[in-house]
Write a structure and sequence with these properties.
By secondary structure, this protein is mainly α. The protein has 2 domains: 56 residues; 220 residues, MetI-like fold, CATH 1.10.3720.10. The protein is built from 15 helices and no strands. The protein is globular, with a radius of gyration of 25 Å.
Length: 298
Amino acid sequence: MTARWIPEAPTFSERASKLLLMLGGLLVTIYILAPFSWLVLTSFMHEQDALSVPTQWIPANPTLSNYLTFFDPSGTRAVVGSRAAEQTLPSMVNSLIAAGGTAVLNVIFGALAGYSLARITFRGRGVLLAVYLGSRMLPGIALIVPLYLTIRAYGLLDHLSALIITYLTFTLPFTIWLLKNYFQAIPRSLEEAALVDGCNWWQMFWHILLPAAAPGLVAAAMFAFMTAWNDYLFAVILTSTIASKTMPVVVAGFATDVTTERTLMAASGVLAVIPPLVFAFAFQRLIVQGLTSGAVKD
């Protein structure tokens, strides 16, 4: 008869460590989700309920009027921020164009530059990488005046292209660093095998390297998209009409000198979260893999 192995019971310190870890995770979860939960609940309140004392944490009379206002600002209810409500959906389209264009250009230029820095050794390579990294240390507010004058000189004020170029300037250095490390983690044997099989360089790059680097590309695109989507400083300085205003600028318009439409601002905040949230859930596995693999290898 064979003896059965019985696992040892966890010690008191092990149980205490596990309990503390669970409590810490719970506190972090509450810290992250509580503000967004409050935002969602407020978006379903009437304005008077949102201002009531004591505070209503749960809507007593839930309503969809705040969301309907964005589709028909004049037909649902008169609001101080009705102009901002009219501009919310067009501004979301502008934000999608600006953030999406920034993400696409980051992937294109970042992949080419990252591959070059990962595979080619040339004089000044280390200095160039240091310059890329150093450019990320400059605060945006320090560059806003020369950037504004340059864009005005080229006649690009109030154009989405100006925002895309600006966001590309601040996001591309990180993308290059991330993809450079990711390409370094890909074995050279993949490239050599493709070239031996008759592929030219572009075919090898497109059909072999880019699919292998997909997690890094998605992580870089997500970083660029979120940076552009959340920007307020450059958008409010470089845009003036709804032709190019992005969502953060329009959402700020619900706060006026007269009053603040808190429920409409909350509803617009929920709408602003949806596109990046969908993006993150759709590519969750690739994003995590890209940030934990390519970003830590040298």
